[in-house]
Amino acid sequence: MIMIRTIIIFFSLVLLGCTQTESEKVFSLHEFPQDKVMVVAHRGNWREAPENSVWAIRKAIEAGADMAEIDIALTRDSVLILMHDRTIDRTTTGKGMPSDYTLAEIKELYLRDGAGHATQMRVPTLEEILLESKGKIFLNLDKGFDYIGLVYPMLEKYDMLNEVLFKGNSEYKTFNNNYGHIKDEIVYMPIVRLERGEGWDLINDFIENYSPYGFEFTVGENEDSLIDFKPLRDKGIRIWVNSLWYNHNAGNHDDVSLENPNVYEWYINNNVNIIQTDRIKELTSFLEKEGYKN
Question: Is 196 contained in some domain?
């Protein structure tokens, strides 16, 4: 009887240890495997739910996205909401700018779907989206720096500084002047517009003075401006290229995947390991087949 009780206690402790290990797993951008490709859902999964909605985040998670890119704006009473355009006309049943409305007034409106029809869904606050995404999907806050005074404390409150990515298109000196006080607390990625002549000078200035999470590159309509990303990958720096439209990726864009799923080989061959997409299903299917999906 004593032996049986000892065995039961032993296995109970083993199971408890396993459970604790699982619960202690860190959900952090820094832990995402370098040899896998991170799939970023543009404005959430807007093909299956209104863009920048709670359901766009849920459907992005369901589709296998690792990160959701979202856009934020400010109401008249200084509450951060999700909204891409300067006005609310296209995506809601209202008219005007977000700053024309209080949160209560915004919540009276309905979101429109991709075809422009009104749904029964409401405009979410950033706080609602943080609670929805925490521990499930990473976020990229477009225009996040515009409201950093409100965003940063909120990320601290929910312990999500390692779950949210900031991006910017300034050189290092300007970035450091503006955000030097928090630069080591946030996850940051500079944007390099190769087709506009930006390149190694901007890149090296960051690398010599900072440890960026990665770089986002826009390539242009052809490969004339493309550089070799491998030296950056060898340093553990991640490479982000959008597959959204042809002028970001030398024509290797999402819509091509409808007829040729192997269009995404271009990204693998060019050492890209973060892709923002409008076609989550096609991209994740390709990555799973090739062994690049986390």
Answer: yes
